[in-house]
Design a protein that fits this description.
The chain is globular. A hairpin with a 3-residue loop joins strand 7 and strand 8. The protein contains 30 helices and eight strands. The two termini are about 15 Å apart. It has three domains: about 350 residues, no CATH class; about 160 residues, no CATH class; about 140 residues, no CATH class. The longest helix is centred in the last third of the chain and has 36 residues. It has about 725 residues and is mainly alpha-helical. The chain has a four-stranded mixed sheet. The chain has a two-stranded antiparallel sheet with strand order 1-2. A two-stranded antiparallel ribbon has the order 3-4.
Length: about 725
């Protein structure tokens, strides 16, 4: 009988979402009440609920890291926050019932509808889709496969170890993994695996972002009129992206290529939906930075209240470092630019607040920074340069120039850099679309003096300028993709989103009062067209992220843009088979067991996505970039790789010796591994504990453990 993995994923993702409310909502409410930042105690219940999740995201991640080594203290504090929340909510409800019958405000109903709608979109976009014996993951599984393993590692120990380099000695994980720490608590609390816990975390990332919009409109932009309506507009604008749909269509017309993600045509400025589904931890890094800034700007009645605000802001900055190094780097540059301006303007509360909270954040983040940047437990170093100077790329434009004028710009680097520089406005117009014009209209309003250059306005422009400076002239060097150039724009995108909400509300209100001028109507129509194109792009993007593996497996789209998916049109059957084997293994293996698969597997995504265990060599070079010594990996590379790739050199008799040497408890092989096709290899001469047409799992190593696994079958 076939298991319905889609139903399992949906139920457990919902369960993870509910469990994470104990981490990403309730502690934030208690922190707000105790610290009274934003005058929390005097706010209406709806405002308190809106503040709670961003406050939790700002404070909880770094506390989990700092207290994770002492689980009793961590869980005691969390339990105390749950009890405190129950007491506070009971008091608020009783006080409200004495005045009048408690009534749920309309804004709460609207907010609840938005949350449920987002939860449906997130879970439907991420869970596996099953059609009888076929199983398909989302395109985003390419990234989730790695971070799912990090989350599973965090559920085993804090700080987590590199799951792709498991064994002795342990290799500390080097990554911005605070979001994985948060999600891992769901696996400790309930019957969910690390993948489903991350899906639940993605739901809360969207809730936190929507909450931040309302908070920022009130406390960053300083707008008090019709705040609920403007917040609703801002949340709706999360569905609008740039004009990516146009170059994506052009690529299809010219080359008949269908990309699994619409962003891949260029050095992307990622849509809100795409960032939430692929990399929610970067958005949480943005949120922590913004919350730190907003907290220190709140007026404090006493020195004690000011100290509490600086402490909470410092916790937020420390959390941001571990949530997203990239978002925090961009925010740190903003602070560098902002402090001299604030001192010149005599905004001493900003200067003292940022310096004080920054110092607190640095002290609290030092233990994490020592792990990420310092030597590992085996004495190896922590990596090279973080970025290099380079003009932002625009590959489609360069390709069109080369093909049109029969030139090769790559041969003339100076000319190439000049053209890339001159094309930056066009590049950004296509990437930002509607929001690019919003920024231009904001500048026009300032020049016409219809908008005031307030401190908040200046802050917004320095944030936007910093993002554009980093995105235009800096490039990541740590990995092949330009992650810094992609994620640095989150802060600019957020400020432009806030301004867009104000602009749309202004135009909407003016139309109800009087007929706008011809020029205004034309501009509104132009902006409306850009917004519609952005909405169409988001819908197309969400559809392709979900359906691309299915379409490729069915042969309806080409395989050129996703070579990491199985090319033999057996993806659905093989994924179902591998998940079935790994789910069976999970029932008989302890969480700390080491399960080895082919580290060079073509079908690496399901192995990493469903394993939930560390591997002695889980990636080429053991993923040493995430922690560990490459030299140690080279020692184990030949016997492990030969096991799957050159089975004639891997005798079955030596298998248990190798497993004992590296602590391996089980081995999983699939039909794409060369060892599978050799009928004389250990795959067919050794008895599996679980097997089907596409995958086989074997016990190995310790004879007592192996006997127990065979008996457990």
């Amino acid at each position: 009988m076939l298991r319905n993995f889609t139903a399992v994923d949906i139920v457990r993702s919902v369960e993870a979402s509910l469990l994470l409310s104990l981490v990403l909502f309730i502690p934030g409410y208690v922190v707000g009440w105790l610290s009274n930042v934003f005058n929390f105690r005097d706010r209406p219940l709806a405002a308190q609920l809106t503040l709670s999740t961003p406050l939790a995201v700002a404070v909880v991640p770094v506390l989990i890291f700092l207290l994770g080594g002492n689980q009793k203290v961590l869980w005691t504090l969390l339990a105390a926050s749950w009890l405190g929340f129950a007491f506070l909510i009971r008091s608020v409800w009783q006080r409200g019932s004495q005045i009048r019958q408690p009534r749920v405000p309309g804004v709460v109903w609207i907010g609840g509808t938005l949350i449920l709608s987002w939860a449906f979109v997130a879970i439907a976009s991420l869970v596996d889709l099953q059609f009888k014996g076929l199983l398909y993951f989302s395109t985003t599984a390419y990234d989730y496969s790695t971070r799912t393993e990090f989350t599973a590692a965090a559920a085993r120990s804090i700080p987590p170890l590199n799951p792709f380099f498991a064994g002795t000695p342990p290799m500390l994980l080097r990554y911005h993994y605070f979001w994985m720490l948060v999600c891992s608590l769901a696996t400790r609390l309930g019957n969910v695996d690390s993948r489903q816990a991350m899906y639940g975390g993605t739901v809360w990332a969207g809730i936190a972002l929507m909450s931040l919009i309302g908070i920022s409109l009130r406390f960053f932009v300083g707008d008090r009129e019709h705040l609920a309506r403007k917040s609703l507009i801002g949340c709706s604008l999360l569905l609008v992206t740039g004009l990516d749909i146009l170059p994506t269509a052009l690529v299809f017309v010219r080359s008949h290529l269908v990309t699994p993600d619409m962003e891949w045509w260029n050095e992307q400025i990622t849509s809100w939906l795409d960032t939430l589904l692929w990399t929610p931890h970067h958005i949480m890094g943005l949120l922590a930075c913004m919350m730190g800034l907003l907290i220190i700007r709140q007026p404090a009645g006493t020195k004690l209240q000011r100290a509490a605000a600086i402490l909470i802001a410092g916790l937020a900055f420390a959390s941001s470092v571990g949530l997203s190094v990239l978002a925090t780097f961009t925010f740190a540059l903003f602070v560098v630019f902002w402090l001299p301006l604030a001192a010149y303007r005599r905004w001493w509360d900003d200067v003292s607040g940022l310096l004080g909270a920054g110092a607190v954040g640095l002290v609290l983040a030092l233990p994490y920074l020592r792990v990420v940047m310092g030597p590992g437990v085996d004495g190896t170093g922590g990596g090279g340069r973080f970025f290099t100077l380079a003009i932002r790329r625009f590959p489609l434009a360069i390709e069109l120039i080369n093909s049109t004028f029969s030139v090769t710009l790559r041969q003339n680097q100076s000319l190439l850099h000049l053209i890339l520089f001159l094309l930056l406005p066009l590049n950004y117009f296509l990437e930002l679309g509607f929001f690019f014009v919003v920024g231009a209209l904001r500048i026009r309003s300032l020049r016409a003096r219809s908008a005031q250059m307030t401190r908040e306005e200046q802050t917004g422009w320095v944030i936007v300028g910093t993002s554009f400076l980093v995105g235009s002239f800096m490039r990541s060097t740590t990995i092949g993709s330009n992650d810094l150039g992609w994620r640095c724009f989150l802060q600019a995108q957020f400020v432009l989103l806030l301004w867009a909400a104000l602009l749309v509300d202004e135009w909407w209100s003016s139309r109800r009062v009087s007929s706008p001028k011809v020029g205004t109507r034309r501009m509104a129509a132009f902006v409306g067209v850009l917004a519609v194109l952005g909405l169409v792009g988001t819908v197309y993007q969400a559809s392709m992220l979900r359906m691309s593996p299915i379409l490729q497996d069915a042969g309806l789209i080409g395989t050129e843009m996703a070579p990491w998916l199985d090319q033999d049109h057996q993806l659905g059957k093989r994924t179902y088979a591998l998940r079935s084997v790994y789910d069976s293994l999970r029932t008989v293996l302890p969480s700390g067991a080491i399960v080895q698969y082919n580290p060079n597997a073509t079908s690496f995504i399901p192995h990493q996505l469903y394993s939930g265990h560390g591997a002695a060599m889980g990636l080429p070079l053991c993923g040493a970039v995430f922690g560990g010594d490459v030299g140690r990996c080279l020692a184990r590379m030949m016997p492990i790789v030969n096991l799957f790739m050159r089975p004639s050199q891997a005798a079955s008799s030596g298998l248990d010796v190798m497993c004992r040497e590296y602590g391996i408890n089980a081995i999983v092989v699939d039909d794409l591994d060369p060892a599978w096709t050799d009928q004389n290899s250990w795959v067919w001469t050794r008895k599996p504990i679980f097997a089907n047409d596409y995958a086989r799992a074997f016990a190995c190593g310790d004879p007592i453990v192996s006997a127990g696994l065979m008996h457990g079958q």
